[in-house]
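Tutorial, part two.
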Amino acid sequence: YDWMREQLSVALQGARLVRRVAEEIAQREQAEHWRRQQELSLAARMQTSILPRELRVPGLELAARMLPALAVGGDGYDVRPFARGCWLAIGDASGRGLARGLTMMLLESRIAAVVAGAPEGSPKEALQVINGVLRDNVHERLGYDEHATLLLMRYESSGRVAYAGAHEDILIYRKRLGRAERVESIGVWLGIVPDVDDATELR
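Running the prediction step on this input gives:
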């Protein structure tokens, strides 16, 4: 009986220890899950908070909406009005996660600075400046191996449009002709090489 009592006691202690370890693991996993959810929620709020609140440009009807995915992504767009029109930008940092969201935030802040400093400037020249800063910040300072696509367009109230960069192709509906046409966006990803001048076309 003494031997059986000792064996049962050891078995019960082992079972209690296993249960306690399992509970601690579950608590740690739950805490880690909560922390990740908080991080993602904060990153998603930061990502959407820098998007334009109003899309008002004389002579244009604009509509845009972004619904963040469960994971933080690198999608973004911007509308920057100036006296004779506006700048439009749409892009996507590669992949998913906090690094990509941070890359897009850096990209959007640089777009705002460049077009505010030269509202009548060339989209090709603006992309060259944006690429250089993005390359320096992301690769050299943060040590991330990230890149982004970006299509940058300058619209003038006269109806003239100039654009440069690479993202999705542009769809234009010609009301007079009753049909849509697709225009390729030809360019290079930003943040990979220090100079994108030769690989960027102004159209």
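The beta strands are 73-82, 85-96, 148-156, 161-166, 170-174, 179-183. In part three we will examine how such features are distributed along the chain.
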